[in-house]
Please model this.
Amino acid sequence: MLKKIVYLFLFLCTATGYSQHIDTPIDSFFYNVKRIEFKEASKSLKKTPVLIQDELQLILEIIKDNGQTHKNEFQLEFIEQQNISSLEKALRNLTEGLYILHYQKNRVAAFEYFRKAYEESLNQNSIEFQKYCLISILNFYLKGTLQNDNEFTIYLEKFKEVSTDNIDHILRNSYWFNLVAQTEIYNPERYEHQNLFDGIFKEQDILVNQIPIKAPIKVYYYLDKGNFLIRKEPKESLKLFEQLLITSDTTKFYRPWKYLAYINSGRSQERMGNYREALLNLEKSQPFKNRNDSLKNEVAYHSYAADYYSLLNKYDSAYYHARNARYLGYQFNFQKHNTEVSKIKVALDTAEKEKENLILTAEKKRNQNIALSLGGSLAAVSIIAFLVYRNTKRKQRIAEQDRELQIQKTEKVLKEKELETINAMVSGQEKERLRLASELHDNLGSTLATVRMQVENLERNLDKVDDPKALLQKTNALVNEAYTKVRSISHERNSGVLAKDGLLPAIKKLARTVSSNNNLQVDVQDFGLENRIANELEITIFRIIQELVTNIIKHANASEANISLTQHDNELNIMVEDNGKGFKARTLQEKDGMGLGSIERRIEHLEGTMEVDSAIGRGTSVSIDIPL
Model:
């Protein structure tokens, strides 16, 4: 009866969605980071105070990279700053903790930074910032940095106290399952705890149904429930891992999720007796293994490979992988031993700091007593009150001046953006005019000049020509050729977009033309693009895709490219990818003409967004979202 009452209460709570106020831009930023909605987080970041925008941008980049850039390539230099605010200090501690956790060998040091960030967050007017500090601490424990340390239960309880929405409860259950439930006390294989685990995932099922279908946060649910079902329902667990792969996109953040999805799909296939498929999934996981935690990944890879080859009666391969797993396991255990030593050092340092804090607190209390004993006279109180009043007035004037300056800066930026958009549109139109003029001059002009010469020759020598009919036929053929070129230019001008079939056939035709004329294979995929959209918007979108394909042909030196169009509700997502030589996206210098910067301004004119992901030797991926 008690269990039914608990589930009823849970359902009523989740039905309301635990609606939450996002009071400040900082709240909005960390709320969207928590939901794995990085585009929305980036928008929120731009609304925060200028003094903390660089720090928030750094936090966002570290979280989005998710430790996938090699530690030798992701180097940060932290500059010590004096007289910074409590909020800036808290954000800096969070940044340093995230950097150490993802890119440094001795991860133990990250905990002290996370703890400081959390303590500072308690003094800030941002509940979502406080939550993310706790999430960072729980992720620290989830990495397995400290062995046999159950102090995470303290922070799990603190996170439970501040949980206010469905996302919080999904994360709390996920941490519970992966931290508490995997200990020896709550071994999921023990029969007597089966009801406990069933209850947790019934709660997760209710919570997940309250959030949108394509919410990225569902990756936690797919992974945890899939792991829970591997032993008793491997076929159902395999479906959940497939959903995890679908939900995970191509960005760096999801690489560890894809790795775990393939690894655990192999475990599900093994339970079903499909040993070859298990081995295939294991091989698929390797491109996504963590670059900064490779030893742990390699031990797991060789261990699973040894099991699968043994089940396939390939004992030579099984022995080879078992030997590698044992050898790498020795190294991994040595690293854990060093981690334990580091843990002891952190504990000693923390104890020493606590001792210093006690001494400082006692001294501060003594000074306060002396100040109170000396007291303050009425005159002193009056003087202090006057000074405070004058200082407050001065701060108000400065704040008003700052607000006016900020308004002026914002208006200036908006005007500059508008001019940039207009320039981009004019530049595009001018380039199109020049291209048409060139086509008319080079192709059609030469043909018409030949026709004119033929007609003049026929006029002068009509009586002298032996076969005037043949000359007329030749002239007629040239006229037909000119007519065909006019139609071709007209067709190319609209590229099929204005035809009855619309945008998608035009893009497929473009792909076929490029694939047949270049050493480049272009594929097109679409999903949900069933209805026509506004003709002007179709033309603009086609020109953008055409320009991106032209850039691939001119600069990428690629052999394969992919164009993906997905329409969901009132939004169109366009993904253009290639396997070319790539470039440094951060140092891209804009040039005159239809460059990436110009394309981005045209997309902003459509109230859309564009993201470019590229690096030397890894190809380029351009993602565009346009509201319809």
Summary: The longest helix spans residues 378-460. Residues 1-19, 589-594 have pLDDT under 50 and may be disordered.
